[in-house]
């Protein structure tokens, strides 16, 4: 595992849908892959990134130049596999050096068939995407290099874009399962698994929730038949505008008075359930040092983010839900570009954030949101007990 190999890897090429090409070396599995090319700015946490199911369908490029130094290990996996459609790095570590390492990143990518490329100028590619926007791309190595440049470009331009894409079925659990509550029990939370990360489930269980994880195919009737004390929608890949069935489920369960918390995709779906729109950002927010303002406290949080879509609402003032859920406010917004980063409902028990309070990887500034959820559910249960 730690023996250095100084043989140059075989060639590979990264082809962008606008025809731009970058020559490099094969990294991870060899072959061909297509997806939306996005960049992630975290200097650490590559394993949490590639095992985040929200990245399904995306070729992730790390802007940090040196990747793989600490290898991979089982405790840091956020889900059952690596989900990225492809992986682009500048300078992969030739050795693994960490006491927690169980394997090298390269061989872990090979095990999951993730086609990657290294030795490309990731700074130039990032600047290109920053100006031109995220776009479809392909990585080709091995016998796929026999395709001519125009045939490779054809493969890319014939592939599906991210707008309008529903990917929940690819990443969700196919069977329900549960995590027991830890410490003082607050109640049960039904978690719709749209691509949930393990750290999120752990935080919920640690806050006293019995966590019931449900496949994304579940119906509103089934959720209500479980009589959960709360509902949670996870992060996940794809375009929120293509998840109408989940939006309908959310509306029904909210109308039944069940308290709600959503993260990332779960924030976008709350926005849509309330009757607002979502839109695609030019190149999205992906990294672990994204500044966000909590409007209620004036506090700035440094957050972990991974989103390419956002809720379409002015960050100031209150807005009336066209779906009859009362007054809604943007609770948090990005200090980089004023994009909506959180929603709070004033007339029903529901809130959500666009960023990742489970902080895997990333700073722990936003972990308080799990406490806020626990307190909201505890007060709802108390009110129910008093017949309010
Ligand atoms: N991490 C997420 O949940 C991402 C949500 C959505 N797929 C987006 O890209 O905006």
Automatic annotation (TrEMBL):
Among the Pfam families in the record, one is: GATase
Q: Which residues form the Carbamoyl-phosphate synthase small subunit N-terminal domain?
A: 10-140
- Which SMART domains does the record associate with it? CPSase_sm_chain (SM01097)
What class does this enzyme belong to in the EC scheme? Answer: ligase
Kindly list the biological process annotations in GO that this record carries. Answer: 'de novo' pyrimidine nucleobase biosynthetic process; 'de novo' UMP biosynthetic process; glutamine metabolic process; L-arginine biosynthetic process
Active site feature: 264 (nucleophile), 356, 358
Keywords per UniProt = Amino-acid biosynthesis, Arginine biosynthesis, ATP-binding, Glutamine amidotransferase, Ligase, Nucleotide-binding, Pyrimidine biosynthesis
Please name the InterPro entries in this protein's record: Anth_synth/Amidotransfase, CarbamoylP_synth_ssu, CarbamoylP_synth_ssu_N, CarbP_synth_ssu_N_sf, Class_I_gatase-like, CPSase_GATase1, GATASE
Q: Where is this region: CPSase?
A: 1-184
E.C. number, please? 6.3.5.5
The record lists the catalysed reaction(s) as: L-glutamine + H2O = L-glutamate + NH4(+); hydrogencarbonate + L-glutamine + 2 ATP + H2O = carbamoyl phosphate + L-glutamate + 2 ADP + phosphate + 2 H(+)
Q: In which pathway does it act?
A: Amino-acid biosynthesis; L-arginine biosynthesis; carbamoyl phosphate from bicarbonate: step 1/1; Pyrimidine metabolism; UMP biosynthesis via de novo pathway; (S)-dihydroorotate from bicarbonate: step 1/3
**Residues the entry annotates as binding L-glutamine:** 54, 236, 238, 265, 268, 306, 308-309
On the tree of life, the source organism's domain of life is Bacteria
Please provide, alphabetically and separated by semicolons, the GO molecular function terms listed in this UniProt record.
ATP binding; carbamoyl-phosphate synthase (glutamine-hydrolyzing) activity; glutaminase activity
Name the CDD domains on file: GATase1_CPSase
How is the subunit organization of this protein annotated in UniProt? Composed of two chains; the small (or glutamine) chain promotes the hydrolysis of glutamine to ammonia, which is used by the large (or ammonia) chain to synthesize carbamoyl phosphate. Tetramer of heterodimers (alpha,beta)4.
Family the UniProt entry places it in: Belongs to the CarA family.
Name the HAMAP family for this protein: CPSase_S_chain (MF_01209)
Purpose? Small subunit of the glutamine-dependent carbamoyl phosphate synthetase (CPSase). CPSase catalyzes the formation of carbamoyl phosphate from the ammonia moiety of glutamine, carbonate, and phosphate donated by ATP, constituting the first step of 2 biosynthetic pathways, one leading to arginine and/or urea and the other to pyrimidine nucleotides. The small subunit (glutamine amidotransferase) binds and cleaves glutamine to supply the large subunit with the substrate ammonia.
Q: What is the official name of this protein in its record?
A: Carbamoyl phosphate synthase small chain
Originating species = Mycetocola reblochoni
């Amino acid at each position: 595992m730690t023996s250095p190999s100084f043989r140059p890897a075989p060639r590979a090429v990264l082809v962008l849908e606008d025809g731009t090409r970058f020559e490099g070396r094969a990294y991870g599995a060899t072959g061909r892959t297509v997806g939306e090319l996005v960049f992630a700015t975290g200097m650490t946490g590559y394993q949490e990134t590639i095992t985040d199911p929200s990245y399904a369908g995306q070729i992730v490029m790390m802007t940090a130049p040196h990747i793989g130094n600490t290898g991979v290990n089982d405790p840091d996996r956020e889900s059952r596999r690596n989900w990225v459609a492809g992986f682009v790095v500048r300078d992969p570590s030739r050795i693994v050096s960490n006491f927690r390492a169980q394997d090298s990143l390269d061989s872990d990518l090979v095990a999951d068939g993730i086609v990657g490329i290294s030795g490309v100028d990731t700074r130039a590619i990032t600047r290109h995407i920053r100006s031109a926007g995220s776009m479809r791309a392909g990585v080709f190595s091995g016998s796929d290099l026999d395709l001519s440049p125009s045939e490779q470009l054809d493969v890319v331009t014939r592939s599906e874009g991210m707008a309008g894409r529903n990917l929940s079925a690819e990443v969700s659990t196919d069977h329900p399962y549960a995590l027991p509550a830890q410490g003082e029990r607050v109640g049960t939370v039904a978690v719709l698994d749209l691509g949930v990360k393990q750290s999120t489930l752990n935080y919920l269980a640690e806050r006293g929730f019995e966590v019931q994880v449900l496949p994304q195919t579940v119906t509103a009737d089934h959720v209500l038949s479980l009589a959960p004390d709360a509902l949670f929608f996870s992060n996940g890949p794809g375009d929120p505008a293509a998840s109408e069935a989940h939006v309908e489920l959310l509306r029904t369960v909210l109308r039944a008075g069940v308290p709600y918390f959503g993260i990332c995709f779960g924030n976008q779906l709350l926005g849509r359930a309330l009757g607002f729109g979502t839109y695609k950002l030019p190149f999205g927010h992906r990294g672990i040092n994204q500044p966000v303002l909590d409007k209620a406290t004036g506090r700035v949080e440094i957050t972990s983010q991974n989103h390419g879509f956002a809720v379409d609402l002015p960050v100031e003032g209150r807005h009336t839900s066209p779906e009859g859920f009362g007054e809604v406010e943007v609770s948090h917004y990005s200090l980089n570009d004023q994009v909506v980063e959180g929603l709070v409902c004033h007339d029903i028990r529901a809130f959500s954030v666009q960023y990742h309070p489970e902080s895997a990887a990333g700073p722990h500034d936003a972990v308080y949101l799990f406490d806020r959820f626990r307190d909201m559910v505890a007060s709802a249960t108390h009110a129910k007990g008093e017949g309010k």
